[in-house]
Amino acid sequence: MPTLRKAGTALYLFKHQRNENIEWPKKVAKRLGLKLYVIDRKANPIPYAKLPRFLNMFEYYIDRNYIHSLSKTALEALACGLKVVRWDDEVIEKLPQEHNPMRVIEKLWAFYQQLVR
After folding, report:
1. What domain range includes position 89?
2. Is the pLDDT confidence value at 114 over 70?
3. Tell me, what DSSP letter sits at residue 68?
4. HSE (CB half, 13 Å, CA atoms) of 42?
5. What local confidence, expressed as pLDDT, does residue 2 receive?
6. Residue (of 65, 70, 68, 53) closest to 26 by Cα position
7. The domain spanning residue 48 has which CATH number?
8. What was the pLDDT predicted at 92?
9. Residue 1 within a domain
């Protein structure tokens, strides 16, 4: 799939969560010199089948900061090759090792083997 990625862009998906601070992604984008696109997930839902192509339009994904772990969407963005800004302002560029597909398959296979014994 060819990438449509535009350098210097960032995506934030507004989720309407009680603890969500919409000013935080704006500050992050400004600090990094990025053009920020805020998408309201309620008003503009993105079908899962179209998510990879959509994510690949951006260089960065700014994850939520009200929960201190990577969201599923952040992991998907990393898998697509985007840089992700975490809750602690750290920019990561690689999928964390615990989410590496081969490692996940090995764990799943071991779990399956225990079930069938």
Report:
1. 6-116
2. yes
3. S
4. 4
5. 55
6. 65
7. 3.40.50
8. 97
9. no
